[in-house]
Inverse folding.
């Protein structure tokens, strides 16, 4: 963990230093440009500018900036910092209105002002004049010699309102990528190209899964039958695993009086809630999370130590105000459906309950072929304890419990400060997809605070009323996001058990419609999802369509098949997957199936469907 964070600091210093160099390159081109901010972001950095005389940089200019920065990197420029007074800073940035605004704000917030000058290093005690000074709190490379000249790339520009507010002027944001080595940059660019091909928004359209339309609103996806089937398949799978583990379904409404969130504390601490509506003179909110509803349901009944743990679950949609600029396909939405569980337990049951959850997460990940993951233990920001509800002691107990349990699993893990929820520490499961991108999926949160706020209790062995512990848990995170991630992970070629259409029948011509109908019925009766395409398009065209849809099995039916009462099968990914699956089947059976016999095909598919472990992932 330590080496990881050191590594990320190095990258961050490189990125931040390059942002300064970008500003220098831009000022060479347009000395009157006004400077906004230039922060580090994932994989790189950006800087916002207001150019003079309506100039905007062309793709040629972007290349020039790249060249200019490369030259500066080669010169070994250093970053020299010093603290300044308000007056001094104001004087220096008198012709920079955005910087002046920031300076005033920092002073209002009681922050110190520091400047960094980028230039040739000072020689023997003399201060050599630098050529660019920026308002900055530091975090740079020693000199630009530490930057690999092949490890950064100025990529593109975009419009961005000053401070993200559309009432403010629109600035030009110039983006750059930066890594510690050229190899890392190349790998990232390659990954991005692959990601573009797999983009779930593009595949979602091609596969007929979902749509987002203006009349309904940004971040509010609608699912076509195939998408709805996919989500139901995923949710049912989770639901079955939960039932086996003693979880019980509950049901809760989607709106609530604000009173609930006064008790839970969300009204004060949670900012993604929509403006309330008035009903009978009360404020009613659309629920952005489910925890408070679960708490209330528990509270309405008396509980004894003997009936704990109570494992309540609901698959239910929440509504959150995400900024429009941050919405993206299914991965960032305003209507998100959680596979939410809240377990009410005695303190001595925490460990076994979390073990039960970890076992289920393991089973789910195996079924989706998510083999590369680690656990992040998300802790408080120990320097800002006032951000959280609950006592110091309660937090320490909860954080230590999570540590102990994770260590026992032998799974990879790291600890991360300032990633906890405001009501408790948590375990986040970070998964690496097929092209190496990291996603946060499952989460388990230990919560000693909400039981306190809701005054939850149970009667213990000594007939005293005591507090239960609440454990929040979601395996998928949200169905929508999980689907978005899975569409990209599989590039739309879902494992058989997830494929909305498992078999597609293509009769060569109308003449074979009756036989196609017979085969369709046999396959459908066997519980396999089958579709027949008997449209007037040519066979070649229909095969291409079926392949674009990434249907696992395509059956072509013609004269020969009718005569012999067989089907000719084409199987998706045949080169890669077939031998692995075949090797687990009786050779003789498999040989006959390849020759094409309908009942053997249905047997085979059923076999593949029932074994939703690794074997069916191909
Ligand atoms: Zn800086
Ligand atoms: Zn919860």
């Amino acid at each position: 963990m330590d080496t990881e964070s050191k590594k990320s600091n190095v990258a961050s210093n490189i990125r931040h230093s390059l942002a300064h160099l970008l500003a220098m390159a831009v000022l060479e081109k347009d000395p009157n440009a006004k400077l906004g901010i230039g922060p580090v972001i994932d994989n790189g950095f950006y800087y916002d500018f207001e150019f003079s005389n309506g100039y905007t940089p062309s793709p040629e200019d972007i290349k020039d900036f790249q060249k200019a920065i490369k030259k500066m990197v080669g010169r070994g420029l250093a970053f020299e910092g010093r603290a300044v007074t308000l007056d001094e800073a104001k004087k220096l940035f008198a012709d920079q209105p955005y910087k002046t605004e920031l300076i005033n704000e920092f002073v209002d917030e009681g922050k110190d002002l520091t400047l960094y000058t980028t230039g040739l290093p000072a020689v023997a005690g003399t201060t050599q004049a630098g050529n660019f000074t920026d308002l900055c709190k530091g975090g740079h490379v020693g000199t630009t010699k530490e930057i690999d000249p092949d490890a950064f790339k100025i990529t593109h520009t975009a419009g961005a309102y000053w401070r993200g507010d559309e009432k403010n002027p629109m600035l030009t944001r110039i983006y750059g990528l930066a890594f510690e080595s050229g190899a890392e940059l190349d790998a990232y660019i390659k990954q991005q190209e692959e990601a573009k091909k797999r983009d779930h928004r593009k595949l979602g359209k091609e596969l007929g899964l979902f749509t987002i339309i203006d009349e309904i609103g940004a971040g509010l996806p609608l699912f076509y039958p195939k998408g709805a089937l996919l989500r139901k398949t995923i949710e049912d799978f989770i639901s079955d695993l939960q039932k086996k583990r003693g979880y019980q379904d509950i049901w809760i409404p989607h709106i609530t009086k604000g009173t609930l969130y006064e008790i839970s504390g969300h009204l004060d601490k949670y900012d993604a809630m929509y403006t309330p509506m008035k009903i009978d003179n009360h404020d009613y909110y659309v629920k952005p999370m489910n925890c408070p509803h679960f708490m209330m349901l528990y509270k309405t009944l008396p509980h004894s130590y003997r009936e704990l743990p109570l494992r309540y679950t609901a698959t239910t949609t929440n509504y959150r105000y995400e900024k429009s600029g941050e919405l993206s396909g299914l991965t960032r939405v305003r209507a998100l459906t959680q596979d939410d569980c809240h377990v009410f337990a005695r303190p001595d049951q925490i460990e076994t309950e979390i073990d039960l959850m970890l076992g289920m997460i393991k089973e789910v990940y195996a079924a989706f072929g998510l083999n590369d993951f680690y656990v992040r233990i998300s802790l408080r920001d120990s320097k800002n304890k006032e951000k959280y509800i609950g006592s110091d002691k309660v937090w320490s107990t909860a954080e230590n419990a999570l540590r102990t349990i994770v260590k026992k699993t032998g799974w990879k893990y790291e600890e991360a400060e300032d990633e906890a929820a405001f009501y408790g520490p948590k375990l986040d499961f970070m998964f690496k997809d097929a092209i190496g991108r990291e996603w946060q999926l499952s989460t388990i949160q230990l919560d000693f605070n909400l039981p306190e706020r809701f005054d939850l209790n149970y009667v213990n062995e000594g007939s005293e009323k005591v507090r239960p512990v609440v454990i929040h848990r979601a395996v998928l995170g949200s169905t929508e996001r999980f689907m978005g991630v899975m569409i990209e992970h599989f590039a739309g070629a879902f494992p058989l058990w997830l494929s909305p259409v498992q078999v597609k029948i293509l009769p060569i011509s109308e003449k074979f419609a009756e036989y196609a109908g017979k085969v369709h019925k046999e396959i459908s009766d066997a519980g396999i999802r089958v579709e027949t395409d008997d449209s007037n398009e040519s066979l070649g065209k229909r095969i291409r369509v079926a392949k674009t849809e990434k249907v696992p099995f395509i059956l072509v039916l013609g004269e020969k098949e009718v005569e012999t009462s067989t089907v000719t099968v084409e199987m998706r990914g045949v080169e890669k997957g077939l031998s692995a699956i075949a090797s687990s089947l009786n050779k003789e059976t498999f040989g006959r199936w390849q020759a094409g016999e309908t009942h053997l095909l249905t047997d085979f598919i059923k076999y593949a469907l029932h074994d939703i472990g690794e074997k069916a992932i191909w």
